[in-house]
């Protein structure tokens, strides 16, 4: 208790609070700019942490991360350029809502559920961190293989309307991920003599191309979106109402949030727990978490047909999972010094720089546990600060919706170029963005979902690696099921793929 | 008139700029991902360089391809001293693995700044079985192919360290099953969860798990114990002569003027000695806190080290024993072929099911304008072609303006937006967010 008080007084200081506020604004900005990621935002403040004390330095990073992840939803919703890979899970929902003039509703939902997910994640971190770390260390390459496959299956099977189209999209993504140097074989594949291709296809430019650039093409081609309005039949405000003025619907959107939070309390808890657990596993991360919880949300929803066409439920569940995953990633980082994601990898460096040694002792050593509790408290504050700053960002960003289309698309094009280039400072990535844009345009004409393509690019390498690791370790396929967690995950995966055709078969027999 | 003056002033300052080095931001390329050891070193040395050189030093992670991307970009950059590369030991290996032509000879080396020795780590409950490297090697000799080890990808530096040791002992590298992993972090987790029996990586990478008592270092492949890890014995103490090398150093593209290289060789030893203090702390102290070693080798000594290592690692990588290891249970093109098969099947089924819909797919039938699509694709193409020479601001402004024209925006709207927006974007991305946007001829 005394440590908690000490931590509280460490955090509630002028310097810390100013740092939190400043990094919230900066984080929102970095997250909202296409191509700039939370990881980059955090990496850029590392030199600054030289001059800050440990609590302030960590508070800066925590706030940055929480705000940047939410801010990724702003371009996702308004421009159809996913700010983070996890927003790719609900980009179609969010953008459809914008097209219907309901962008405030969509963004307010993102914000409210991001904050809630973040708070639930913080609570789990606060209560169970040391114990959970032990659990995370039960995961071997067998479990990772099934978990990765589960994330991919969720995207391909559950989230798309047609099993065949989902599979096709997934296979395209996986094949794209095979380009470049294969770490397990240590030979380059499909590089056609290009040195740049040895590094493979970076998913950020790919994502910007698949969603953002292809939308420009659709806009120009005249096939974009008017149809979607007619398609989605769910009640609510009509598009005309949404277009009236910016502030009135915002207020209304905000007012509707609290009841919907209460209504969805259980599913939000479920999504946050999923997000936290997946985020906690080193190398799994928020993207898998968001997809799995989107799929779980669709499976349990009353109206699964609206998913992908402007479902607020889907957005709510996926976004609470990805914010909760952030807190999860701190578990292995604090307890074992093994980062849960790329942001916590930087955090470990900063901790060491400040003479704080991550390890199980961090919770028992009184000097260090004060710092740990300070981190937890900043998580709390960061999520609370996100509410006003996030709303300001929504208001500021949504003027984009009122910009006439013919002015907007050339600017988006420049942003696509800028975003693709920014991540690695490489011209080649602009080319990748271009090619993916054309691919995305083609696939959408066929109504092939784009989400599985992105997730395939992100996770394909890991899927192949873990598969080969497992095959190198053992000779029998049964080993894939021999461990309890691996077995369970494996059976869920197989069930996901086999259930739809079996169900159809049974129905045909009885019907 | 005022405009002319402004232009004249710009040109003048542009000319003056050439005299002094450095006068614009320096790019520090890190070939490895954010958060790793190399990234940490790069990001932490950057503020010290900034202070000494008086210009911003921006770190960019050019990752992928086991280091090919970063190193090749660093060696091909303009040799003007403004692109610095944090080189790593992979530079001695990549060309032997035929992943790239680039070797250390494509760089003007500034010097080595760090050297971490490989160590053998096991789970703490295994220490009774193999208390030291001698016992471990005896066990492997009796049970070849039984133990599973990891630390990095197949053919990575830690794999080579282990394989080299086995060869040194008269064993084959294949006598230990190497499980390819994505770096030392995942490998250590796999060690703790029981997926592998030993990990070969540097001690700083395993620091937390060592202190937590989860893993134990039974030997480090060096001649003297590592500062901060004094309880881990060296191989030499057991009469093993094998040492394993891993280094980090700084380099500039080949052909950089010697006066610029000398500027760096004069500044960097000062930083490494601790003469430069930023935020109340000197670089060696900062490194010591994180358990990183700081070793300065001036260019001539460093070049000798590089020649020696290139020979040693080349012998290992091209040796017959090693190629045996590299062929895993799944051939490189097996999984892509399976995927292609699945893709083809679902495509055929899809076409079969949607025979009707496909006829309606033709572009013309939907009133789609191919010309407009081609134009926007072309716009990106033009950017790719000219941005490097003209710079971001000029290219993007003109492009944006032309696109506005095509899209039918009135001149009084399009011109101000294009002229104002692009420079603002440049300021934000390039200055505040440190994205290395192309500067072009005008430096803007």
Structural overview:
The complex is a heterodimer of chains A (511) and B (444). Chain A has helices at residues 2-11, 14-32, 38-49, 54-71, 73-79, 91-99, 103-136, 141-158, 163-177, 203-221, 226-231, 239-243, 247-263, 265-280, 285-300, 312-336, 342-353, 366-397, 399-402, 405-422, 427-445, 451-473, 484-510; strands at 180-182, 187-189. Chain A is mostly helical and 511 residues long. Chain A has one domain (2-200, 220-405, 448-510). In chain A, a hairpin with a 4-residue loop joins strand 1 and strand 2 (187-189). Chain A is globular and about 65 Å long. Residues 225-247 of chain A have low confidence and may be disordered. Chain B is of the alpha/beta class and 444 residues long. Chain B folds into four domains: 20-115 and 246-326, D-Maltodextrin-Binding Protein, domain 2 (3-Layer(aba) Sandwich); 118-238, D-Maltodextrin-Binding Protein, domain 2 (3-Layer(aba) Sandwich); 333-361; 364-432, no CATH class. Chain B has helices at residues 2-17, 37-53, 68-76, 133-142, 157-168, 184-192, 207-211, 258-273, 283-289, 299-318, 320-326, 334-353, 355-359, 370-390, 392-406, 411-432, and strands at residues 26-30, 57-61, 83-88, 107-115, 118-123, 148-150, 177-178, 198-202, 215-220, 247-253, 277-278, 281-282. Chain B has a five-stranded mixed β-sheet, with helices on both faces. In chain B, a hairpin with a 2-residue loop joins strand 11 (277-278) and strand 12. The longest helix of chain B has 22 residues, at 411-432. The model of chain B is unreliable at 10-17 (pLDDT under 50). Classes of the chains: A mainly alpha (511), B alpha/beta (444).
């Amino acid at each position: 208790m005394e440590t908690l008080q000490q931590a509280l007084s460490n955090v509630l200081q002028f310097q810390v609070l100013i740092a939190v506020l400043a990094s919230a604004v900066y984080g929102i900005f970095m997250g909202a700019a296409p191509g700039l990621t939370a990881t980059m935002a955090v990496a850029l403040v590392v030199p600054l942490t030289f001059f800050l004390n440990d609590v302030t330095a960590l508070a800066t990073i925590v706030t940055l991360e929480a705000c940047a992840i939410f801010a990724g939803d702003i371009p996702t919703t308004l421009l159809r350029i996913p700010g983070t890979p996890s927003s790719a899970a609900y980009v179609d929902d969010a953008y459809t809502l914008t097209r219907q003039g309901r962008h405030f509703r969509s963004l307010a939902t993102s914000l409210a559920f991001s904050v809630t997910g973040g708070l639930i994640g913080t609570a789990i971190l606060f209560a169970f961190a040391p114990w959970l770390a032990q659990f995370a260390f039960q995961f071997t390459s067998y479990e990772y293989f099934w978990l990765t496959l589960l994330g991919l299956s969720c995207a391909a099977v559950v989230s798309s309307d047609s099993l065949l189209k989902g599979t096709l999209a997934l296979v395209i993504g996986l094949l794209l991920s095979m380009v470049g140097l294969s770490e397990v074989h240590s030979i380059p594949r499909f590089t056609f003599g290009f040195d740049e291709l040895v590094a493979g296809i970076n998913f950020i430019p790919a994502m910007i191309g698949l969603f953002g650039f292809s939308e420009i093409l659709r806009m120009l081609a005249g096939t974009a979106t008017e149809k979607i309005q007619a398609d989605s039949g769910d009640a609510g405000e009509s598009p005309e109402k949404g277009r009236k003025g910016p502030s009135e619907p915002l207020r209304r959107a905000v007012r509707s949030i609290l009841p919907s939070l209460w209504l969805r309390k259980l599913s939000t808890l479920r999504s946050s727990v999923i997000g936290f657990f997946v985020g906690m596993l080193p190398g799994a991360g928020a993207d898998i978490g968001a997809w799995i919880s989107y799929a779980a949300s669709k499976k349990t929803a009353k109206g699964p047909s609206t998913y992908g066409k402007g479902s607020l439920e889907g957005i709510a569940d996926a976004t609470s999972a990805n914010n909760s995953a952030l807190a999860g990633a701190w578990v292995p980082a604090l307890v074992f010094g093994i980062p849960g994601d790329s942001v916590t990898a930087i955090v470990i460096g900063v901790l060491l720089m400040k003479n704080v040694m991550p390890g199980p002792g961090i919770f028992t050593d009184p000097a260090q546990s004060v710092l740990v509790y300070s981190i937890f408290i900043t998580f709390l504050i960061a999520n609370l600060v996100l509410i006003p700053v996030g709303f300001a960002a929504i208001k500021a960003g949504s003027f984009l919706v009122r910009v006439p289309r013919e002015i907007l698309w050339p600017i988006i094009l420049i942003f696509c170029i800028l975003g693709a280039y920014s991540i690695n400072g490489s011209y080649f990535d602009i080319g990748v963005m271009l090619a993916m844009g054309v691919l995305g345009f083609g696939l959408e004409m066929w109504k092939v979902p784009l989400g599985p393509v992105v997730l395939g690019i992100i996770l394909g390498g890991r899927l192949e690696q873990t598969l080969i690791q497992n095959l190198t370790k053992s000779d029998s396929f049964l080993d894939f099921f021999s461990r309890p967690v691996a077995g369970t995950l494996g059976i869920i995966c197989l069930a996901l793929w086999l259930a739809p055709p079996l169900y159809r078969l049974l129905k045909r027999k009885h019907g | 008139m005022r405009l002319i003056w402004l232009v004249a002033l710009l040109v003048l300052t542009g000319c003056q700029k050439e005299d002094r080095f450095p006068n614009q931001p320096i790019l520090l390329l890190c070939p490895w991902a954010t958060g790793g050891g190399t990234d940490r070193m790069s990001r932490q040395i950057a503020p010290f360089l900034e202070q000494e050189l008086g210009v911003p030093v921006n770190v960019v992670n050019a990752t992928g391809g086991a280091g090919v991307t970063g190193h090749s970009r660093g060696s091909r950059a303009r040799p003007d001293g403004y692109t610095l590369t944090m080189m790593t030991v992979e530079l001695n290996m990549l060309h032997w693995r035929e992943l790239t032509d680039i070797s250390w000879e494509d760089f003007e080396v500034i010097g080595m700044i760090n050297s971490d020795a490989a160590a053998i780590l096991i789970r703490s409950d295994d220490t009774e079985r193999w208390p030291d490297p001698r016992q471990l090697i005896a066990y492997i000799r009796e049970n070849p192919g039984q133990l599973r080890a990891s630390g990095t990808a197949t053919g990575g530096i830690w794999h080579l360290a282990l394989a080299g040791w086995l060869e040194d002992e008269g064993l084959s590298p294949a006598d230990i099953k190497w499980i390819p992993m994505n770096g030392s972090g995942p490998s250590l987790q796999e060690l703790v969860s029981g997926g592998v029996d030993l990990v070969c990586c540097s001690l700083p990478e395993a620091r937390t798990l060592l202190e937590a008592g989860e893993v134990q270092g039974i030997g480090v492949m060096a001649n003297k114990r590592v500062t901060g890890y004094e309880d881990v014995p060296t191989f030499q103490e057991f009469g093993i002569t094998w040492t394993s090398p891993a280094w980090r150093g700084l380099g500039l593209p080949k052909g950089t003027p010697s006066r610029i290289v000398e500027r760096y060789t004069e500044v960097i030893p000062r930083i490494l000695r601790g003469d430069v203090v930023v935020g109340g702390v000197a670089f060696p102290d900062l490194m010591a806190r994180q358990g990183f070693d700081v070793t300065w080798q001036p260019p001539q000594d460093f070049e000798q080290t590089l020649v020696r290592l290139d020979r040693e690692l080349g012998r290992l990588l091209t040796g017959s024993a090693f190629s045996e290891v590299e062929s895993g249970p799944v051939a490189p093109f097996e999984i892509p072929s399976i995927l292609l098969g699945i893709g083809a099947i679902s495509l055929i089924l899809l076409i079969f099911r949607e025979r009707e819909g496909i006829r309606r797919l033709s572009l013309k039938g939907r009133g789609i304008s191919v010309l407009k699509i081609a134009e926007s694709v072309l716009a990106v193409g033009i950017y790719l072609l000219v941005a490097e020479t003209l710079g971001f601001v000029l290219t993007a402004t003109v492009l944006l303006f032309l696109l506005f024209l095509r899209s039918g925006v009135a001149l009084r709207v399009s011109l101000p937006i294009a002229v104002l927006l692009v420079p603002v974007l440049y300021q934000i991305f390039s200055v505040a967010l440190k994205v290395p946007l192309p500067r072009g001829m005008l430096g803007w």
